[in-house]
Specification:
The protein is mostly helical. The protein has 7 helices and no strands. Helix 5 crosses helix 6.
């Protein structure tokens, strides 16, 4: 379980210490996970934070949806992975100040509406 959480942290650019701070856990809580019985409500907080299922965090499996909480999320993630433009948009969202990204989105919405005769 600890390795899955470490992997999620790495994939999302957050340290274990920062995750502990964000979720209100004591220092070192995550490093002790393999040596003690975990508090299920804390593990649920981790699952919710990363958008994965509790089963996946605890057991490494979630047969119905894999890594994701539901089939729609899994489908959207797959579409984004397969579409270079969607990945670029996601990367911009992740790396751009929110107000700047909002301006880009407004521009794209306006352009889309103009092209489709929606004013």
């Amino acid at each position: 379980m600890k390795e899955r959480i470490k992997g999620l942290c790495k994939d999302n650019g957050i340290s274990l210490n920062k995750l502990e701070d964000v979720l209100g856990f004591g220092k070192g809580y995550l490093s002790k996970l393999n040596n003690s019985s975990p508090n299920v409500s804390n593990i649920k907080k981790i699952a919710d934070y990363f958008g994965v299922s509790l089963d996946w965090i605890m057991n490494g499996d979630d047969e119905e949806n894999g890594f994701y909480l539901n089939a729609e999320t899994a489908k959207l993630a797959q579409e984004m992975y397969e579409d270079e433009d969607m990945r670029s948009l996601f990367d911009m969202k992740r790396n751009m100040p929110p107000e700047r990204f909002k301006a880009h989105m407004e521009f794209m919405k306006n352009l889309y509406n103009q092209e489709n005769g929606n004013f």
